[in-house]
Amino acid sequence: MSNYLFLRGNRNKRFFLDVAKELNKMGHKSFQLKFELGELLFKSDIESVFVPTKLSSQAYPVTDAEILNMPIYNITYKKRFLNKETSQKELHLYKRYMFYIDQFIEEHNIDIICLFNGYHWIDQITKHLADKKGLKTYYFEDGLFRPFTITCDPKGINANSSVPEDPTFYDSLEINEDRLSRYLYKPQFVQYRKGIKESLLKVASVKAISMMGSFLRIHPSFYAHITLWQASKYFIHKKIFQYRSPDKVDIPKDYLFLPFQVSRDTQILYNSDKISTMEELLDHVYSAVQTYNRENNKQMKIVVKEHPEDISRNNYTELKKRYKNVNNVIFLQKYDIKTLIKNAKIIVTINSTVGIEALAMSKPVITLGEAFYNIEGIVYRCKDPEFLGDYITKALKIPLNIDRMKKFIYYLRFFYQIEGSINHVNKQTAMNVAKRIG
C-alpha cells in the first residue's frame, strides 16, 4: 500500500478529494496540502493541512538559479508579459514552501504525488523534490475528448506526455471500429451523465475568497496572471457568451482552418519556440497560404476562430484592423468547431487539442510547435514557419495514412485517457482514476 500526496487541484476542488477517498478505500493512505483560503470551504475525509499557517522561516537549500530555470508559469509570465523579474523575496518564499513540503513528504513517507497541470510554482518545486527523492508523480489535466475523459500521465502533460512517439507502435495496434465510432465523444457508461457539474458561480466564488485571502495576507497571491478585475471580466464574459448566438458568416468552400490558442497558455510559453503570439501565427499562415495559392493556382482562404477562454482578455482589435480589407481571412468568435474542422481542407495549429479533433475526422494537420501528436504519418510537423507553404502543398497532395491516424486516436481514447469528467462531481470518475493510479 502507498501514501499519496495531493497538491492544489483544478477548478473542481472536489476532484482530488474524491480520488483520495477512493484510494483510501483500496487500503492506501492519502494526504492533501491546501494553499488558498477558498480550499478550506471543501471538507475532506483525508488528512489535510493548510500550509500558509504552518510555514516557518526556514528555506530549502536550493539556488535562485535552479528555481529560475524551472518552467514556472508565474516567473515566465511576469518576465514575458509584465517585464518584471522575480524578486528575491518571492524566490525566498518558494524556498520556504519547498522546505515545508520536503519535511511533509519525509514525515508522512509519501510514495506518490499528484499534481494538476504541473506548471504552477508549487507544482514545480514539488516536482523538483519528487525527482530528487525518486518518487512517482502523476499529472492531471482536462481530457482530450471532453467532457468525458481525463488526462493522467506519470511524465507530464502535452509535449511532456508518455504517449508513444514510435509510429510502428500504432501500426501494430488492433482496434474495434464500432467502439471507436460509438464512444469517441460519448461515455461508455451512463453514470457519467448523472454527475453534478461544478457551477461557474461556485468556481468564481471560491476564487474570489482565495483572492481575499491574499489581500488579507493570510497567504500570498499564488497567481501572477490574474487580478480581481480580470477574474470579474472573465466570469461576466463566460456567463454572457453562453447565450450569444453563433456568428452569422458565409463560410467559404475552400479554406484552411486556423484555431487560435490561449495566447498566454503554457502550450505557447513552453512548447512553441518559433511563434509566441497569435498575431505571429496568423501572419505566418497568411504568407504561406498566399504562396500556396500562387504556386497552385488556388483561392484558398483562412478561417480563424478565436479561443473562447481568451476573448475577455484579448479581442485582437489591432490584428483585425490589419486584416480588415483582406478578404482571404475570416475571423470567428462563436461557431461550431466540429463543422469548421469537417469542412476545412486542412488544419494548421501550434499544438492545440483541436489538432486531435481534426485527426479524429481524418483531416490533414500541420503543427508548428511541440505536441505529443507530432508523429510521422499522423501529422506534418513544420519546424520552420518560413516553409509552411511547402508543407501545405505536401499535406494536401499526399494521401493520408488513415489507418495509422485511426489507431492513434483509438489508443488515446481507450488506453491513454481515463473515462470520467473532472468538472462533474461523480463517484465513478473518482473510482476510475483511483484504479489507474492505485
Provide a descriptive summary of the structure in words.
With 438 residues, the chain is of the alpha/beta class. The chain folds into two domains: 3-195 and 417-437; 255-414, Glycogen Phosphorylase B (Rossmann fold), CATH 3.40.50.2000. The chain is 42% helix and 14% strand. It is built from 17 helices and 15 strands. The strands form three sheets. The chain has a seven-stranded mixed beta sheet, with helices on both faces. β5 and β6 (149-153) form a beta hairpin. α1 crosses α17, α4 crosses α5 (121-133) and α8 runs antiparallel to α9 (228-241). It is globular.
Quick overview:
The chain is an alpha/beta fold and 438 residues long. It is 42% helix and 14% strand.
Q: What is the helical fraction, as a range of percent?
A: 40-55%
Oligomer: single chain
Total DSSP helices: 17
* Strand order across the largest sheet: 3-2-1-4-5-6-14
As a percent range, the share of strand residues is 5-15%
User: Poorly predicted ranges (pLDDT <50, ≥5 residues)?
Assistant: none
User: Main beta sheet: strand number and arrangement?
Assistant: 7 strands, mixed
Calculate the mean pLDDT score and round it. Answer: 92
Content-based structural category:
alpha/beta
Shape: globular
Cα distance, first to last residue?
9 Å
From the alpha carbons, calculate the radius of gyration and give it in angstroms. Answer: 23 Å
Total number of strands: 15
